[in-house]
Fold each of these.
Amino acid sequence: MSIRRDERITFLFSEIEDSAALWQQNPYGMQKAMVVYDSIFHLALTRHGGTIFKTIASSTYAAFKTAQAALAAAIQVQKALAGVNWEDFPLKTGLILHSAECTRYDGEFIGAPVKRASHILAAVHGGQTLLSQATRSLLTTWPEPGLEFINLGEQRLEDLIQPETLYELVIPGLPTGFPPVKTLNNLPNNLPQQPDVLVGREQELEAVQRLLRKPEVRLVTFMGLGGTGKTRLSLQVGASLLTEFKDGVFFVDLSPARNPNQALVEISKALNLQEGGGGRLIENLKRFLYQRQMLLVLDNFEQVISAADLVNELLSAAPQLKILVTSRILLRLYGEHEFPVPPLALPNLYHLPPLEELRLYSAIDLFVQRAQLVQPDFELNQANASIVVNICAQLDGLPLAIELAAAKIKSLTPQALLDNLADRFGLLILTGGSTNRPLRQQTLRYAIEWGYDLLQEEEKLLFDRLGVFSGPFSLEAVEDICNRDFEAGRDTWLDAQEILTTLINSSFIKALDTEGGEDYPNMIMLDTLRGFAQERLEASGEYPAIRQAHLQYFMREVEMAEPHLNGPEQVRYLRLLEKEHPNLQAALDWGITSNDGQALKMALTLAGSLWRFWQVRGYLTEGRRWLESILQKIDESNQILQPAAMAKALHAAAVLASIQGDYQQAVGLYGRSLSLRRQMHDVAGITSSLNNLGIIALYQNDFDQATIFLEESLELRRNSGDKWGICNTLTNLANVALAQGDFTRAETFLEESLVLARELEDKRSIAICLYNLGNIALNYNNIPKAAASYYESFRLRLELGDKMGLTETIEGLAAIAGVEADPVGAAQLYGAALHLREELGAPFEPHDRPIYERFEGQARAQIGEDAFAAVLRQGREIPFEQLIQTITKRGSKLDPKFDLPR
């Protein structure tokens, strides 16, 4: 993909008048006419050096290097069209010319100049040619004599920003005397001028236009929290539909109104309607609207929600009236169409697209445009791109927040701005909005407080308490944590479900899509709102108690989930914990920082139950940090806690340390854990510690000691009938045999382990067995069996989100690629796996290294050191989604039905 900036271009845009109606009336005739039209248009472009870069319905967008060439092409097109014998099927085409410096991306011009030209095009009549002031000023010579340029004066366009001086081209011999151009100057409206062009929102605009064009749709409500840009979008919708409402589009700012009567007054004022002698204002308004085809835009309806009946009354009285409402609360009227206004589009933080593509995301484009208003030389570059993306993500893609943040670029570097925003209260002090805007749009705090003040007291109370959550939360969690009497003597029982519904309808929280088996959706609060709620919660005096309740709830949730992390339901519970990950982090943080003994005890239990989740999902460093902090805090405080909880946490810390190759620390932790478990006669715990001590002995190449530990563990597990434990230890004994080169013995252990794993429906254990069996098959040069084993293992590990497992399986698939004479593909996969290992901080396991070195060396030798190193680097940079597609493609060659879970 290529990008070129700052090219001086003259656009020639065309629009066929009434094309939709012509296609509907006579499709065959229109098809014939279009052949002639296209021929004429393309001939003119070819002759004068123009290029078509976009076609939208009946509009064609072309670009020329000079204004003179574009003008010559326009004259040729209009003359040729006028000379055609259309046989009662004339095509009237409006043309416009506009010049500007533009950016071209992948052959298509993008940005504000293209939008400006399209808005000029919306003003032209069929057969007419219009020029902007920019183009007219470039025309020093004319392609033929007799041309006239009639100055039409400053015209307000659909984009609602500063007016544009337009000129009408008069070509000798062609029709003149067109009606007034279709601009805001000449159509009934009161739409206010805007300081800046609307950025993004193309999809929303098209969707709302389609909705309002439906005869049966008469009431649309834009829903969204403060700062999402509901007002600006509603104005743009109104401007874009001006020609479709013969009696106009009128904007009504309801922010001064506090009751239905005041709302009625504001609507009447916007329509310049005075109360007649002795008449009631409502009756005069209904008479005025009765036969008018009009669109009313009612802004900020949430504060006069009791005026919903007034809207219903007006719609009933005026059959051609349509109403577009912006609100944080639904009107709940029959026939109301809710239209949520989402935040602006953001790229994936973890897989950023190329630099030249970033401004295709409207949140990033808005930031850059607004930053350039205060610092004209500001540019997105390799040094600041990821910082800007992080800023916009931290601001939830909210247009108001992004505009306020971008205004700080004059005094702060992007990194300094991001650092300031990292403090959640930094989100609330964003100021510096334009003083010609309403106060609620000048700071983010005012925007939030504006809606907050409209809530009832119980709604405010629950909203404040929701600030305890990080990430998504469920109805059950809210009822358990937030619906308590935290202040003695105060009855704070709340109807949580009812209030949550109100907060969703008021755009303070968002309902997420439900998953299988859920009766009520999970919810989430944007970070900008959470900072506000947390600030109020901390000031309320309830903060310590509600944080304690939050920790207690999630400790119980994890204790409930832990047994299911092995067995048939492990995928479901791993996903559940992943969803709760931010809340789990917040709960652990409180347990450590609160200096409360009971909180520390709960944090110990919580962390000790999370190790399998941390292991599978690759949060190794994070898990170690939490566990080590808790254990250190306990040691420093000389607290005596339950031996079982201590033993479990020590074991968990040891597992994560051993995976990251910190064997010395792991042995010490296992030793402390095993000592406690022997004191408690905890057979299951003892066998687990012995098993894992055997693994460390294996990693340290002490195969005899590894075998002793593992065989003792296996005997105890067989005696106790622990099928999962037997399966696990058999796999580890197989790894010892593999490390010793005894593939026959390893295969025997693995086959027994695989039978148990399938019986238990434990996908992770199945995947581990298959991976190891793949290694054995590869060693025996049984490539089909090895490939089948690796691919099934990969499928299961992807479903589980098992990052460590995915890493080693990718290495197996890389070996297959090399054996199948694709050393380049092998190098790419080896690079991807190497990147994952570095990300996890996970070294090679001893039993895997010989196979890895053998087959990686073969691929390296096939293409040479330099080429292998280059492709390896490419593999390290491949986005994860692209990696999955590559593996799926390879798997399909093995089995046409092969696919991976998404």
Note: The CA atoms of residues 100 and 113 lie 6 Å apart.
Amino acid sequence: MSIHRSIGPILVLIFIVQFSQFRAQTTITLGEQDFPGDDFSIEAPYSFNQTSLRSQTLVLASELQAQGLTQGEIVSIGFQVFELVTNGTLQDFRILMGESDNDFGFQFEGGLTEVLAPAPYTPTSDWNTHVFDTPYMWDGESDIIIETCYQNDGPGGQETSIWYSFFGVDSYKESDHLSGNPACDDPFAEDLYFSRPRLQLTWQAPMVPPVAAIDINSIGVCSGLISLSDASTFNPDSWLWYFGDGSTSTEQDPSYTYSESGTYTLSLVVTNAFGTDSIALEDAITISLADISPVAADCTPMTQDQELGFGPISVSLNGTTVNSSNGTAGYEDLTCTVFEVEQGIEYTFEVVVDGPSQNHVAAWIDYNADGSFAESEKILSEVSSGVSMVPLTVSNDALTDSILRMRVISDFYLLGEPGPCTDPEGGQADDYSLRIIPNVSPPEASFTVDPDFSCDGTVQFYDASSNVATGWLWQFGDGNFSNVQDPIHTYENSGTYTVSLTAQNDFGTDDTVMTDIVTVDLDQQLTPACEVNTLNHCCGYGILNVQFEGIDNSSANGEEGYQDFSCSQEATVTEGMSYPIIMTLGQDNPHDTHIYIDLDDDGQFSSGELVFSALNTNNVNTTLTIPDNAPLVETRLRMRIIGDYLGNANPGCTDVEFGQAEDYAIIIQPDTTPPVADFSASPTLSCDGQVNFTNLSTSATEYLWYFGDSNTSTDAEPTHTYLTEGSFTVSLVASNDYGVDSVAYENLITVDFDGVCDTITMPADGIAEVLTDCNGFLADDGGPYEPYENNTSGSQTITVEEGNYIRLEFFDFFFQFNNDFLLIYDGPDESAPLIGQFTGNTLPNGGIVESTGNSITLRQITNFFGQFDGFLLEWTCLPVGLTELDPAGFKLYPNPTDGPLEIRSSNGDPLQELSIFDNIGRLIAREGRPAPYMDLSYLPPGNYLVEIVTAQGVARQRLIIR
């Protein structure tokens, strides 16, 4: 298509000058007198209380168009003064204008054109009209910015109050200065307002000839009807259209119907008082009038917004492709192009869509030629970002040798599936013709099976024969047969079956055999379970893929609802073990995902059978731990996976809202691994003899504890009370059907009854008295054996002699995670640096926390709910600068002792100092350069701490004197 343009005669200059004297001007007012501005509301373009002020006002093109303005010159702007408080002159007052292409924000718009040069200006009451030095040429379509600015030597008075009008969106911004650099150079505004000054604009038509332009709104290729719009600029007042077939029109926006097929050149001549212009669009119109048209449709959908750009741009079927515009045409009747297909043959139907985002595309064929499109006549419906392709086999009962209407619609995908009679928001509907040719070939027999592996014996067979079969004979391989086109057959015995189909029509017969196509295993059936339906699927929710120990299954999302894959998808696991599981969920929104196992095989899923949850994720890639001691092993059980929207608890037998439930089979094997014995104890230093033992053994079913005081227990996790003081070796024997294992911890438990009252507890509130002993035990406010209280906030400081630092050794720690805390500060109060804020059930800093100086402060904070075990620690003071040595490098012998004591060093280092502390941290004895042998029989029986100093550092060990 080529364009030819000619400029009409130009009026002589004298005429233009004379005409300009009579050129009509239009003055419009924008906004009402809603409120007057002042110093405390909005700084005005005339503000004598500032040395400089820059303002920008937004005017929408739609406002000017609503008052009848078109492309032309704006020659003046006025602001309406409410009250002139200060009489004075603004220096260097100027006005600039330009188009607004950006959001109206705090940044001043650049690239504006000066229409009023800087000059002194003295505001007056009421309207102040500024006649431009150079008129501003408005294109008739763009929003505009009006900028004012002035610069004074200094503030000269009060704000000049002008009228403002409410606008509802950001439309006025300003920046003002009392001194310094002029505001005219500011890149950003200080204030942004929903209101703007009341304005008057004067407009006049430009003294230039028009420039011709054409918009082709729609071309009815098959009907011959075209719709045109004048897109010329500079205000033409007469039009002459040439349609290329000898016909003309003087309307501004004509519609015209061609009576013959062909390609036509479209021309337009436009005129105003200053001249004429013309444009020719060569070969712009192609018409192909249909000889035979399909039955008229009951409806013709029209695009609501042709600027959005959604819609189909081509349709292909059986070697023919027809192109169309997207939503810019509004609707296209392309029924003069006839697609031809043969009955009973499978074709690929392809639609290509366009748009700034994904389309939802749908298509229908009016098979019965009644002018409407039934749901059963829909051949395509899917979300697409480009090409959609689906198989198409024409229905056997469709009309043949007739022209049928085929409709394709696509629109923005979030609007849902378009209906055949729904006006698209920004997409388009196109109509085509389809001729169905009768098939006179004999059938080619073919079929499919679903499922090909059945646990209940029920199998669905689908005829896939081509060439319009009209009769069928199925033989299912078990002596049964059927003449139904798509039969459902139930096998009564397990086995593998060969199936055959004979298809026939008036032109011949064909058969096909599929060997061993069906396998039935009735022993694989699971206990029937409650079925979970999807109530309102939307938004892409659902389960797309599951991979887990023999299961690797892909499926559609929740649109297909509940799916039972338990017959063909099976996992085999071992009780108590953990296995990787990967699940892919709908990607549009995060899911909450839950997994249940029907452990007792009763067909229900109780809360106790919930074995896994993953919240707020689209993809799961983690491990699933199989319950230990499962009630049923080596039995096929039902495993249910549910994925739904966030916050849905999804009980195992409750319908799903948006997502989906899928069932699989799982076999839990018994754990034949021999046990591995292990345990822990708390506390290991007891003041009342009571100790709790935690079983850490794996794969064990029976236990035998030896507490070291001639007592035993067969409980899994016993609590034992020692009746005598001393150190005790504890052992555990763990067993199952496959083996025995044992573990023993020498001198694990130390019992000292004298220390029971000396374990200090944190205050529930306030600040406790400072502790000054070098050694002691500290617990939460509940003590060593009871949980802490709620709503506590107590502080405890430990301060020892100068030259020492403090070591905290934690034996137990369990605080409600991220709700209750223990805070530790490196100093005498909470203004000191925070060493750490600890919560949960992990020992702080691995169990050891140290100060840098001779003070350390702890604060316990708990909330209003949830009581947990808290903490138990021992503190000791250590000389600054000494290295902490491994206690295993020294041996106190015998221990316990009746008095005689030998101190042995593994590396032979001589002892420089030995200190003995009682169980509350008091220094009992200290000796420089002690002998390796000593007699401590003078000390009373009890639990002591021995501190050994060598040239290498310091070590500490517990000593019991009987």
Note: The chain has a mean pLDDT of 88.
Amino acid sequence: MLSLNDLSIEDHSNNKKDEYLGFRNRTEKKELIVDIQGFDDEDINTYSNHNGVFDQYTDHGYMIHRVTTKGHLTKKKLVFDLYKSYLICHKKKVGFSEFDEIRIGQKTNVFNHYKSKKTSVHHSEDCELSFSLMHSNNLKSLDFVCSSVKERIEIVSALYLVIKQSRSSNNELGFIRKQWDYFGKETLGPNDLRRLLSRLNYSASHGHANELLKAVDKNGDRVLDFIEFSELFKLLRRRPEIKLLLNKYSKTLEGQLSISEMIDFFKYEQSEEWTEEQCKHLIENSTHDTTIQTMSHEHMEDYLSSQLNNDVLDPKAKTIYMDTNQPISNYFINSSHNTYLAGHQLQGISSSEMYVLAMKKNCKCVELDVWDGHDGDPIIFHGHTLTSQIKFKHVIQSIKDYGFENSPYPIVLSLETHCAPAQQVKMIEHMVAIFGDMLAKPFTEEDVDKVKTLPTLEQLKYKVILKGHYNCRMVSERNQVTEVIEEENEEEETDNIHVKEMKPQKMLVAPEYAKWIYFLTKGFKSVEESNTLPPWVMHSFSEAKVKELVKANGTYSFIDMFTRRQLRVFPKGTRVNSSNYDPVPGWTMGAQIVALNQQTSSEPMWLNAGMFADNGGCGYVLKSPCLLPSTVSGEFNYFDPSEPTRHASSKYSKLIINIISARQLPKYTKTEGGEVIDPFVTVSIHGSQLDDREFKTKVIDDNGFNPYWGEEFEFPLIHDQVAMLLIRVDDKDKFKRQNRIGHYCIKVSNIRNGYRVIKLENGYGNQIPMCNLLCKFTLVPN
């Protein structure tokens, strides 16, 4: 029986065999996040090898207290099924490789519910005895309370080892082993081979299956063993188009590139300047042999197919390379609307886990819709709807715990406060207690004549900024509870929702609350009035209102107005199904905070992911020079994306894309009978309306494993600085429907010239394992 003693964090027992079979042993899944307190990997290995202590989890299971979704503590059996790679707890079964995070303590919605129900039988030390296993893209959890710290350490250690081992096997060889094991046979004949190829999204006739079998059947027994099938898998994955390309440069030795030929290839095909030393280093890394002086075509193909080495995204964009000493108003901010909702706007679930998920995506502006709680403690939910409710303090704690995990730059809390003064004070008490000195201190009236620009990102590091209504400033000055009236032109985010509404005309505001509001949202009256306001006063418009105001005031005056202050754009209220609007028009107008329903996977969110993959994914992207104040450029900065005139910052006049081929596209999840897909690719530019274009490739019938297109498209560009490229792969089914398989989005300014590999993403924004698209990109300079 396989036991945990067979598992080791540094287990390389299969590396030589993997290398022999020609597979690159790497995982495509995001790294497992783990918070294991008090010990390191060496300690975990010690636990795992200590007298088979974990065998109890694999044999008959182990009884443990699990917290239910209703917050009740029940004793259930926990079983590690190492053969099928599942964790089983009572009726719940989750694959080990599907776990995203091991979370120590009580930091989930389920535990929040549990703590609210705690009775005298529960103890305060429960927290250090507890842990959670996050799965389903961190939206669901399995939550446990152990009887001792020792038990918690042992169980978490075992889980860590098994999950890590399972995820590390999710590579190319692990994938093909899983497909092979589906049949449970030692060898496969032609019919079995056809069925297995169909599972791999490759359609083969009887005759073609026989030809493939003969090509790798080394002993002539007319069946394939695993090694022979692995050779076939390798053969099908090869890209003959790359071999033809490399043949142009292989003039010294067939099938090999000399160092000088490698230098020429990188220069003329990839627009890269390589040295001899760099080429030698690449050869050594590929061959593990310091004596070899040439690069085989197979190794060069592996290099070109590797996202680690040959990603289309400029490596610079993966770092925080932009100037962070400019005012916060000079940056686009990754922003979420109705962050608390996990689904429908009227009947969906509110969850503090949505804030954790937003923080992990480096979302730096989140919304909190706060109402009076029946027990005197503020709650968050979508008011006047059937959405569920969560504690305000739980959300604040989640933001504190995860808000700066990946990026030190400020978090903006967009507060929609509907509480009475007493619970407004309670809100501030919670935030002061939890955030402490991280809570940004607002400007005062004394700063009106002194401060002309907002602080920089560097100055606001690790700060939490509160955004609220403009009239809060008046309350703060009076230092007493004051009744304020909403301004006539201030938009409400509940506009047009067809439910019973109680749109507030008046509300009481506590001075203790008002004095902490940093960004003040004021109703828009005119461009002239807005230009006289202090920089910390901002506007908030629905997507429809932005179009209306641009039409009334002119594009340039609108852009110029928001070079000095913040603008937040949010979805119109009729989007009750949490659909989204196109964020690109808002960005091209200079809107810093374009808030989207980030719980919904759709084209607007793909564009958002492409925008904020820039600058190291830190949540802040410096605006293009055409959208910055004249004071930054040193000269008058006129830009109008509706005019066919290039701005001085424009670099490229054309983007040429050759969609070449794909490898291992997954099947569409709803395809009838799991038949092989018929893929095609759509490429489109999103930016100025003058640049927006879309092209589609031909449909490749019955081949999702290694489809080849070889089609070239040209995109003339005028305003390349604000252009985004979106690539999506769809399956055209027998009903002529287009079913999305995967997508990828990138800023045009972040594209690398040459032959590049694209890792397609699924609806969660995670890379699809073993799946990629090979394209050639050419950016033509002005």
Note: The chain has five domains: 4-170, 182-237, 249-304, 328-596, 652-781.
Amino acid sequence: TFEASNSVVSSRLDRQILAEFGGRRWTEPTRVYASSLELQAGSHYSLRQLVGVLEQRRYRQVQRLPRPGEYQLRSHELVLYTRRAQSIEGLREPLLARIRFAADAVTNLSTLSGEPLQRLRLDPPLIGSLFPIHGEDRLILSPDEVPRLLTASIKAIEDRDFDQHSGVDYSAIARALWVNLRAGAVEQGGSTLTQQLVKSYFLDGRRTLKRKITEAIMAQRLEAHYDKREIITAYVNEVYLGQDGARAVHGFGLASQFYFGRALDELEPEQIALLVGMIRGPSLYDPRRNADRALARRNYVLAELKNQRVIDGVTYQRAHARSLTLATAYDNSGRTYYPAFLDLVRRQLSGRGFSSENAGTGHSVFTTLDPRVQRLAEQALTTELTRMDKVRTNKKTKNGVRPAPLEGVVIVARPGTGAVLALVGGRNTTLAGFNRALDARRPIGSLVKPFVYLTALESGRYHAASIIDDSPVIVRTTANRDWQPQNFDHLFHGPVPLVRALAESMNAAAVTVALDIGIEPVASTLNNFGLARQPTTVPALALGAVDAAPFEVAQLYAGLATGGVRQPLHAIAGLTSRGSATGTRLPSTDAGNAFAFGPRRVAKFEDVYPLDRMLVTVMNHGTGRASRAVLPPSLVVAGKSGTSSDYRDSWFAGFSGSHVVVVWIGTDTNEPTGLTGSSGALRVWTRVMQGLDTDSWQPTIPPGFEVRQIDAEGGELLSTPCEAQALEVVVPRGTALPESYACGSWPGQRFDDEVWSDGLSEPRVPGRDPGAPPRSLGERLRNWWERVIH
């Protein structure tokens, strides 16, 4: 019978509703957040800088007392109402605070009543999302998070009898039929909100009588099992409101971020009206593509809200007079701004068991990225590459063929914690694709030399003042050929102190030491510090005949910066699952944590410290000297340049007391760039280090060691002042050194400064000894050409 058949159908649909809707889990992408800006007394943030950050994060300036997401400017102070934000520690409630400034720094934090605050954290900015395969996106809201004005507006426009009907409104269907017949077109729909939800959640898009009947039955059964508040909350989360490329924007929570860059509870009435008006046609009323049509639709909704007394006349007039206030960029909408960094996040999640299947479960991933440092790194790289390309094009355009454009990488991390603060994978910083920071394995050149000399120090047979021989050395290769390494200046310097050999990056000296201590121990040192692959153990390894990605190089130099502790570089600070009160903080050494990783000592501090002091000498007297004309005189930094064969790769890696920075410059076609590590990558490195709020490198000298001043030319202990060629070295206490009573003759002018076109200084190509005989014509031409392309 009909009744029995209807009962069977209803029973089947009941089971479907209870199974799917009762245990509903909307597909919600994993959100990825940058680190929170944390302020405290003494923070080096000016009032202007903080306002800039607030504007980027879509905080709004007001004249009255702020609400969450707003701020008020006063004389030398700012009153800020932070937003509610999820964090690793749990949900942070909004906080109203007063921030006072003086001399470009925060001087005081307090509540409005004057109660002191130790620190203040902003909500972490959303920098991207990890989507499930089907590409749907939404921000799930609980019933308490849905603004009352939104629910009232949806009912007024879409289903004014929502609170009275039981899922199907037959009077609304009749009314819609009459309106549409009179108009000769479909101007009004008869479906209730419940029917719309059923259609979106359970059914396909086919328009058949059977599907319409099923929709009506399911709407009634849904209302029988769930109350109105649950149903309208589900509707708010489910409704489709636009498209962002391949990403479908579902729900008012995400739509608010996508169109306005603001949280839903911060929207003004006219903004809510725009979103409600888009329900009927998200593409038709898209405010970015059809602004006039969207504005007209918004104003129609506002008029209806006034007519139905959802808003009063004053609110209507004010809202109607306002233009479409859309976000100028997709701030906080999930649009990826940092594709290279997010690629690192994906890989590190995947490497710790977080698969693509987890992407739709609404996790929150809190990363170590510092947006301020990221922008600094991006600007430094793009500015310098543009300048260098202009110079190269002017010099090297041949037969109308321009050289390949330069590409580059910048990585900034905190060596002590391993936190990656910035990662730039190319000059087009918003383009996803080949990630040079992680995948461009390039010869590292002289960046390897500190690890050669560290291995020598570990052997116990060398110290920083040891005399080593920078003389011609011939090595028989496995191909039965003779290989003779050359120095950059085409000169050999004979016996020199080890510290000078590193400062001037002497090739023959490095190979001599490597052959003495063994190539295999050097390879082991590199692997221990973070080189992923086993290098080929040939003598050329001492000069950088090993390929590494910039991220690996950052790991290597982070180990030097920490005095021999390898702390894995990581992009993830912690993560939470949806609904959890607190999250998992990373890094963690908890063996039961799938994300566990921690530090490991890979070299003795008493071996690494003297080497690091030599890298400081590189910056003060050697191939990094150009940076000293720009960086503050009091800032102690350490570093090393690297250049591969034929100037194909320009490297600089170095660190301060709180940051390690690595820069690579080259081309995707592996063409010669004409740049050394000092003339290319050092420029970018210096700009980045100059912009960082960083500390000097100044660890305590290890017990049993002392600082001595030696003559840079011969390595003798200086007993009289001789600053011009005096080098400070750290050696074991009591080390016997020959004494010199006259200053040496180290040609410090070998690295005298020239002025770069932008005001930086750059080392000249090293010259000949004054007493050397005249060069041959061929030698003079070769060195002239090197000066041109340098």
Note: The CA atoms of residues 147 and 696 lie 50 Å apart.
